[in-house]
Design goal:
homodimer, alpha/beta, 434 Repressor (Amino-terminal Domain), Rossmann fold, six-stranded parallel beta sheet, six-stranded mixed beta sheet, 12 strands, 17% strand, DNA-binding
Chain lengths: 330, 330
DNA sequence: ATTTTTTATGAAACCATTTTCAAATCACTA
DNA sequence: TAGTGATTTGAAAATGGTTTCATAAAAAAT
């Protein structure tokens, strides 16, 4: 592989001049520029990014840490980050943490040692990662770090989402609504639950609560529990779309039809919610926009441009087939 | 950030000795080792991976190029690669090519300039990428490169898959089977189609063929076309699970029930095929095993260990609810 | 006790680039 | 024609590690 010295020798100039031609960082005599360009073409020279990154202290790599890339929410998110970042010359190092705090720490350290230009964290293990000292800017999704290491945070209006879900079911005529809430360590799950609680109080409705994680598996378990404990439930707010889908499956298998016998609503509006039959009603988060913004913030930070530290995205009700049609708008 | 020279100064030794202590690359006096270790702890020193990678010509990065990380097949695959690679100290640079040949080339070049240790390509644009000269080993998924750049290829027995799908439907009593085949540039789609054709000939059954890409969207279109052109079709072989899911939706929406009015089978056995209702019958590819193997091959190659160049995985019929139960095993 | 072998260690070279800095070249004016 | 200022240019330092190589010290062999 040809190096900058080879190019310089062929063009009859110094490596410095070749560098200047490539980066346009200073004036170069036209004749020499021509020779350098010719030599680059001849050798097929491509500068080594490592050497460049080492000197510049910037590797043009953004780390993206997600708990599970198989989770539709996170792969949609990661894809959006990748697309936006790619356009600005950044590359994505994908970190699948599996919710393993140690793995997260390892990844963060590696990224730091690689002179990564930024880190986008969509994870929840506060404990270990909060203490870490790193030299790169962090954009946190759905959480606030306590050590001020992050430059910005991005989240959805989960409280409103919780309210929307509860109101939707109440207005659709549900009398006994089970809230399958997500892990209460997560602010997202907390806020959604709070929204549900507040609406229930306002309407004077009794609250029924079950706990789940954010996975399909957990949805199956909760589904069974609903069948056993609340066989007369007619409304279910699932912790997210994946859980909603598996709860639906369990109830469907038990002979219950949606939305006739029960109505169910999820959160996130992942792609698959439109693909299942019946199509799932869901509270939409603008996942792609969130991913794009995350990448933009890192990019803007590196260019010393302005950006917003707190970014709260609006959520909306997407009415489909697992709930009964509402008449009124509000 | 402390560097190796700082550590050396504090420990009263040379940088070389610090390096030797860290990497265990040579004997070091016990007393000095102790002092070095203490100094490392004191300063919180972490070696810069870029400097290391630059000298060693190995960045411990594996590039994974996929057409679409949102596609369940590819995110399951990428996740498997990540897990396997992580265990061997490798990190994954995720490249979402969007089937854009130019983007692929850019990614390959970047990876090469980063001294990446390997590249796993699950893409189809032969044209441009085949000419590229790179210094890293390539593992190709479902394709053979013509320039011998790759060290190994991994694929499934798609021909057998095509046969299995056709036989399944025939034995389940289908009289008019539509084969919705995938893009015929891809060997995977070609082989599946060939399997279908051979079985049809053996059974003396008329062939009906439609074309699709591998996306949901294309499934919707084909679904409509089936309704228009072959309203009496009672068996559908979809190009993959995603297409099967959307075709199902279209037919279901038109009032047809599976498996009563029509039977449908997909390929790949992605996770969602178990999650939809009714559960989708599919030809299973061992996606996770394929991903793990891909990472292993790169790792073994770098350690100069043996590996197999041609790796063909077996496929199997996973009977679920969109086809009628078969009696006989074979 | 002397020679040979082995082991431990630091100085310096190396990886491939960018940037600083000082020198050389050039244009222009007095 | 010499002097001034602006512009180009290359040598060298820098980035932060690893490794080679030569040497010094210790251990083993004679």
């Amino acid at each position: 592989m040809a190096g900058i010295r080879d190019v310089a020798r062929i063009a009859g100039v110094s490596p410095s001049t070749v560098s200047r031609v490539m980066n346009g960082t200073a004036n170069v005599d036209d004749e020499k520029r021509r020779r350098v360009l010719a030599a680059i073409k001849e050798t097929g020279f491509k500068p080594n990014e490592l050497a460049r990154a080492l000197f510049k202290k910037s590797s043009k790599i953004i780390g993206v840490i997600v708990p599970d890339i198989e989770n539709p929410f996170f792969n949609e998110f990661a894809k959006a980050v990748e697309e936006e970042a790619y356009g600005s010359g950044y590359r994505i190092l994908l970190c699948n943490s599996n919710n393993d705090a140690e793995k997260e720490v390892t990844y963060i350290e590696t990224l730091d040692q690689m002179n990564a230009d930024g880190l986008i964290m969509a994870t929840q293990n506060d404990s270990m990662t909060n203490e870490l000292k790193v030299g790169m800017p962090i954009v946190a999704i759905d959480r606030k770090m306590t050590n001020g290491a992050e430059i910005a945070c991005i989240e959805s209006n989960h409280y409103k989402g919780g309210r929307l879900a509860a109101e939707c079911l109440i207005k659709a005529g549900c009398k006994k609504i089970i809230n399958v809430r997500g892990p209460q360590i997560l602010t997202s799950a907390q806020m959604r639950f709070k929204g549900y609680q507040d609406v229930c109080e306002e309407y004077g409705i009794k609250q029924y609560v079950l706990d789940s994680s954010y996975s399909y598996e957990s949805g199956f378990e909760v589904g069974k529990k609903i069948l056993e404990t609340y066989p007369d439930a007619d409304g279910i707010i699932a912790s997210n779309d994946m859980v909603a889908i598996s709860i639906y499956k369990v109830l469907h298998h038990a002979g219950k039809k949606a939305p006739k016998n029960f109505q169910i609503i999820g959160f996130d509006d992942i792609r698959f919610s439109r693909l299942m039959t019946p199509e799932l009603t869901s509270i939409r988060q603008p996942i792609t926009e969130m991913g794009k913004l995350a990448a933009q913030i890192i990019s803007r930070y590196q260019q010393h441009q302005d950006f917003q530290r707190e970014n709260i995205f609006d959520v909306s009700l997407v009415e489909r087939k697992t709930t009964k049609k509402l008449k009124t708008g509000k």
